[in-house]
Amino acid sequence: MSIPKLPNIKPELLDMPTLAKLAPVGELDHPPRILMLYGSLRERSFSRFLVYEAARILEQFGAEVKIFDPMELPMAGSVPETHPKVVELRELSLWSEGQVWCSPERHGAVTAVMKNQIDWIPLEQGALRPSQGRTLAVMQVCGGSQSFNVVNTLRLLGRWMRMFTIPNQSSVPMAYKEFDEEGRMRPSAYYERVVDVMEELFKMTLLLRGRTGYLTDRYSERNERAVKAIDRQIQKI
C-alpha cells in the first residue's frame, strides 16, 4: 500500500500554478490608480510635500493619483465606521490599485496620524478586501540624520495588510533643507531616489494588474470556504 506524499492536503483544493493562470483579467483600460497617504497635520508638512512631489512623478508616468487629507479623521474606534472621513478613506483604498505611504519619524516610529489612517483600513469589509493585493511604496522624512525606522515599520504594516511592497524606498534626511518655500523638492540624490521609487511602483502596479485575484488566492482560504459550504449544507438537512 503506497503512502500519499501529502496526506494533509486535499488534492481537489490544491491549485497547480501555471503561466496561463497569470494572464490578466478584468477591465484594464483605465490609468493605474494610486492612493497616497501622508502622516502629518502641520501646515508646513514635509511628508505632505514629499507625497505631492511623488504624485507629480506618478502623473507624469500616466497614473491617476488621489491624495487623502487626514485632517479631521477621528482616532480609530472613536466613531462609527459611517463617519464621512472613514468612508472616504475606505472607498479610496478600494478604488486604488497601488498606494504610497509617507510618514515623518517621531520617537523612532511612524506618527499617530499615519498609523491612524492605516488602522481605519480593515483587512476585510464584507466580501471586499480594501488593501489585499495592492502594490505599496513606502517613504519617510527625517528632521535630522537619515533613518529607516519608519519605512521598516511601514513595510511591516504593509505585509500585515497583505500588500505587495516594492523593494525600493525613500528616506529623506534633514527634510527642511530639501524643500523650498513653495514646498517643491530641490534637485538632489534624494529627489532622484523618489523618482526611482515611483518608477518601480508604477512598473509593479502594471505588472500585477488583473492578476492579484489569482496571486492572493490561498489554499487555506479555499479549504475554509469548502468547510463552510459543507456546514451550510448540513444545516439545511
Q: What are the main properties of this structure?
A:
237 residues, 7 helices, alpha/beta, 38% helix
Descriptive notes:
- With 237 residues, this protein is of the alpha/beta class.
- The chain has helices spanning 46-61, 84-95, 112-120, 149-160, 189-208, 212-215, 219-236, and strands at 33-38, 64-67, 98-104, 135-141, 164-165, 170-172.
- Strands 1, 2, 3, 4, 5 and 6 form a six-stranded parallel β-sheet that branches.
- Helix 1 packs across helix 5.
- The longest helix is centred in the C-terminal third of the chain and has 20 residues, at 189-208.
- It starts with 32 loop residues before the first strand and ends with a helix.
Write a short abstract of this structure.
The protein has 237 residues and is α/β, with parallel strands linked by helices. The protein contains seven helices and six strands.
Return the average pLDDT rounded to an integer.
93
Number of helices: 7
> Are there runs of 5+ residues with pLDDT below 50, and where?
none
Q: What is the H-and-E element order?
A: EHEHEHEHEEHHH
Characterize the overall form. globular
Helix/strand structural class: alpha/beta
Q: If you compute it from the alpha carbons, what radius of gyration comes out, rounded to the nearest whole angstrom?
A: 21 Å
What's the count of strands? 6
Distance between the termini: 37 Å
Give a short account of the largest sheet. 6 strands, parallel
Helix content: 25-40%
Q: How much strand content do the residues show?
A: 5-15%
